[in-house]
């Protein structure tokens, strides 16, 4: 589905991505982890078309995405949940979702399509239910909790009907309970929509609990790849996290 080959990206003297080759099979749920500055966000920026690699290929369903705009990457079927819900404070949850769903439908149908856009209301309702936001459909986006704003961000990305969904730290800034509620929803969403999902996450308990595969970056390069069990016991990975804020070493000891 998504096959990244020998990706490189430098910013001045900093090589943020070093010969990264990673494969993401259709329907997989993969965590990208690594210490601060490892190149996780840069990797997302590269594959989503926000920045262009210096070299390498990003094969999505067999076609290279390198050089395409981020909008074109979304059109091909790879969407990223951005912190955008807060940009529409005066829209309710339903209004924001409706705007996203209808704009996607219009784009898919052709800009000048004269056909009426059918089914957008059902689609919005389906997404609201999937995300557990139905009860808050009439709440202004500005008045949502941090967790619900993140869910709305995910909903706005899902409105693009992606095959691959990229989530950048879906649980950032949340307390322990809210974190687990959030990740439970993300996990159910992945199961229900049969998406290929890739998420960056700092919380190792969450990474080990829900991902099928974990890719570890360090200094821009792939340090390790494997199942949560393999990664948890990988000495290079444990060493990479020692002396950092993350509790990778602790999580390994607890296993
Ligand atoms: N636009 C940019 N200009 C210059 N340097 C950059 C830019 N974007 C990233 N970098 C550098 O590239 C390296 C990787 O950064 P990146 O944000 O991708 O890491 P990260 O793993 O996402 O970190 P964190 O966990 O702290 O979010 C860092 O050294 C960073 O300073």
UniProtKB/TrEMBL annotation:
It holds the Pfam family ABC_tran. The keyword RNA-binding does not apply. This is ABC transporter ATP-binding protein. GO terms for molecular function: ATP binding; ATP hydrolysis activity; L-isoleucine transmembrane transporter activity; L-phenylalanine transmembrane transporter activity; L-valine transmembrane transporter activity. The keyword Nucleotide-binding applies. One of its GO terms (biological process) is L-valine import across plasma membrane. Keywords: ATP-binding, Nucleotide-binding, Transport. SUPFAM superfamilies: P-loop containing nucleoside triphosphate hydrolases. One of its GO terms (cellular component) is plasma membrane. Residues 2-244 form the ABC transporter domain. It comes from the Bacteria.
């Amino acid at each position: 589905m998504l096959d990244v080959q020998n990706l490189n990206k430098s910013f001045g003297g900093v090589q943020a991505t070093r010969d990264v080759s990673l494969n993401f099979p259709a329907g997989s749920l993969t965590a990208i982890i690594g210490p601060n500055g490892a190149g996780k966000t840069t990797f997302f920026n590269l594959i989503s078309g926000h920045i262009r690699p210096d070299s390498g290929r990003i094969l999505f369903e067999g076609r290279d995405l390198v050089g395409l705009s981020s909008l074109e990457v979304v059109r091909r079927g790879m969407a990223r949940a951005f912190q955008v819900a807060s940009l529409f404070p005066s829209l309710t949850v339903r209004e924001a979702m409706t705007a996203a769903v209808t704009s996607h439908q219009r784009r898919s149908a052709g800009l000048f399509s004269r056909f009426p856009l059918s089914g957008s209301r059902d689609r919005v309702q389906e997404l609201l239910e999937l995300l557990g936001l139905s009860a808050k459909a009439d709440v202004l986006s500005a008045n949502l909790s941090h967790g619900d704003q993140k869910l709305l961000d995910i909903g706005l990305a899902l409105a693009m009907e992606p095959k691959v969904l990229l989530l950048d730290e879906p649980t950032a800034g949340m307390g322990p309970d809210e974190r687990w509620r959030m990740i439970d929803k993300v996990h159910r969403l992945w199961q229900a929509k049969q998406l290929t999902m890739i998420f960056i996450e700092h919380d190792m308990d969450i990474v080990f609990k829900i991902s099928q595969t974990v890719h570890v970056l360090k200094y821009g390069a792939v340090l390790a790849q494997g199942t949560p069990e393999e990664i948890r016991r990988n000495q290079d990975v444990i060493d990479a996290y020692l002396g950092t804020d993350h509790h990778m070493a602790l999580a390994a000891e607890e296993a």
